[in-house]
Design brief:
The structure holds two protein chains of two kinds.
Chain A: H1 2-5, H2 8-25, E1 45-46, E2 56-57, E3 67-72, H3 77-81, H4 83-91, E4 95-101, H5 105-115, E5 119-125, H6 129-134, E6 141-145, E7 151-156, H7 164-173
Parallel strand pairs in A: 3-4, 4-5
Antiparallel strand pairs in A: 1-2, 3-6, 6-7
Chain B: H1 17-20, H2 26-37, H3 55-69, H4 74-85, H5 100-121, H6 124-132
Chain lengths: 176, 133
């Protein structure tokens, strides 16, 4: 018994060491995930931000068609980086609804001119009310909404070419 | 890097009025202040929204003050945020399977301590018996 017990402190040390090392070496993930995934989109109405582009009413989301909510801003650099991917999604017939975070009409008009305009609608989320309602902790973030108006996926950070299959699968998986 | 970080930049808009302005009613402001001190800032992550100067923390303070003003209780507002961001957002961890060790370990450790103390300082004969082994 004592022969075995004599190794117990070393074993305990090895356990703690392994725990610390996995914590140290694991890639840090500081993303704050939304707890709204799997729940219906919260009800909200956002006025239009730029002329000629409608605002957003979440009541219209339960029309049987999946869509992508893109929480973005003209002052956000990764949002420019994901613009080509959003354009590709639009070309494939995906309806993209923009939630413009703390933005001005002039800045947004410039952003759309330079980065492209894949949005079917852009709502003016000036004081981040809708961002909070969605459980989003930054820009850019995207939410895949199914045809019944339920949030089925949250994508944190910019949508890169490598993220496209995942986004398209989520959109297709919920098609009626 | 697979997961690109979100933008750390700030917008060019001024903060909403209630981000840096106290509520008119001192009682409501006290309630809001206490609540804000126990809610985590989502972008700074080590600070409460009462302490943080991040733009988003300002927006969250405005949201909390607005909901307090509308007559919601601190518990309701906290639950509203936890529904959206998970337990992560509150500095007042609820008791569940994940946090059980946090709450129960101290009790367990005190129990072990008492047990050891009793064995060490308790009855001499028990101690003597062990010595004789």
């Amino acid at each position: 018994m004592r022969r075995v017990l004599i190794w117990a402190p070393l074993g305990f040390f090895a356990l703690v060491f392994a725990l610390v090392m996995t914590g140290l070496l694991a890639p840090s993930d500081r993303a704050v995930k939304s707890a709204m995934v799997g729940k219906p989109v919260p009800g909200f109405v956002l006025p239009a931000l730029v002329p000629g582009k409608p605002g957003v009413n979440s009541a219209a989301f339960a029309d049987g068609k999946p869509r992508l909510i893109n929480v973005f801003a003209s002052w956000c650099v990764p949002c420019i980086a994901e613009a080509p991917q959003l354009m590709k999604l639009k070309q494939q017939g995906v309806e993209i609804v923009g939630v413009a975070t703390a933005d001005t009409p002039e800045d947004m008009a410039n952003f759309l001119k330079t980065a492209g305009d894949p949005f079917a609608a852009i709502g003016d989320d000036r004081i981040r009310k809708v961002q909070f309602a969605l459980g989003s902790a930054g820009v850019p973030e995207s939410f895949v909404i199914d045809g019944s108006g339920k949030i089925v996926m949250q994508h944190i950070g910019y949508i890169g070419p490598q993220d496209m299959p995942k986004i398209l699968a989520a959109l297709a998986g919920v098609q009626p | 890097m697979v997961l690109a970080p979100q933008a750390l930049a700030d917008s060019r808009l001024p903060p909403p009025p209630l981000a840096y302005t106290q509520l008119q009613d001192p009682k409501q402001e006290a309630v809001a202040k206490a609540l804000m001190e126990s809610l985590r800032c989502l972008v700074c992550q080590g600070q409460s929204i009462a302490d943080s100067d991040a733009e988003m923390a300002g927006n969250m303070r405005a949201e909390v003050r607005e909901q307090v003003q509308a007559g919601k209780s601190p518990g309701e507002i906290r639950a509203w945020l936890v529904d959206r961001y998970g337990d992560y957002v509150t500095y007042d961890p609820p008791f569940n399977w994940l946090t059980a060790p946090l709450w129960l370990t101290p009790i367990l450790l005190i129990a072990i301590g008492l047990f050891v103390a009793r064995r060490s300082f308790g009855k001499d004969e028990a101690f003597g018996k062990e010595e004789a082994e």
